[in-house]
Amino acid sequence: MKYVILDLEWDTVYYPPQKRFVNQILQIGAVKLDENFNKLDTLELNIKSQISKKVSKRFTDITGITTEDMLSGIPLYEAVEKYNTFVKDTQVAMTWSDTDLYTILDNQKVLLKEKVTFSFDKYLDLQKLVQGEMQRKGYESKNQVSLESAAQFFKIDTKKFEFHTALDDSLVCGELLKATFNKDRFNELLKDTKNPEFFARLRFKARPISNIKDEAIDKKHLEFRCPECNAQAKNVSKWKYHNRWFSANFKCAHCGFKFNGRVSFKRTYDEVLVKRRICEYRVKKNDMQSMSKEVQLTSNRN
Ligand SMILES: [Zn+2]
Description:
Elements lengths: L2 E13 L4 E14 L5 E8 L10 H7 L3 H5 L4 H11 L5 E4 L3 H12 L11 E4 H11 L10 H7 L12 H15 L2 H7 L1 E2 L3 H8 L3 E2 L24 E3 L4 E3 L2 E8 L5 E10 L4 E9 L13 E8 L1
Bound molecules: zinc ion (ZN).
């Protein structure tokens, strides 16, 4: 079994043909590891932009990559081919969070027209693995942990590394993998990129549901209990939709308390995320802004 850890540096530039910003990959770094996570080989490639003649100051400040470095780089398709040759004898590819995968998908589509694609077999999000181990050891934050913080947490000596350069980031990832490897959790998090669902999930864009009759809405989320006495409340108005929230007035069947129940739904690939609020009863019609004093905020997963 051989592993590869891939890291990308990209610069955000305006891409006129699509009238939007694109995160163009300007550096690829990778380290190949044996089954004991010893370093076998490394790869570092600078890529010449096909969109812009210079890199942004912010990009240089973060990565140390200058416009000269970029201009002396190779075309993206060539870099991807070199990467694919490099990873031929590996079975698992890893990146720090799946953010790099979104950038890869977009670059393949927009800049490479899908003619050349990064080769993937099995994939693992190393950030998930490492953060899971950190949580077991008492780390509490649910926010995605940075590579620097994870390295600090596991007391990895990072003096010899430059963070935010592709190769060094992948080397730090390698050290973290060695420090945190857990066979069961590793296998649990391993994904097969040959399964069409893998990329379908990545491409899926989460969206709010704006139609109250949408079949994905579980009707139980449209029912509210009285915040005063917890008895079932009766819906006494039509549902209105504004700014991603449905709202309706409710009246408690037991104590008569009136309130405004609000609920929002977000469709993700796997589930419908539900947020609910109870606000003050709305007297005026068509005035969504008024009386929005929040009394309670709950979040449920469907
Ligand atoms: Zn009540």
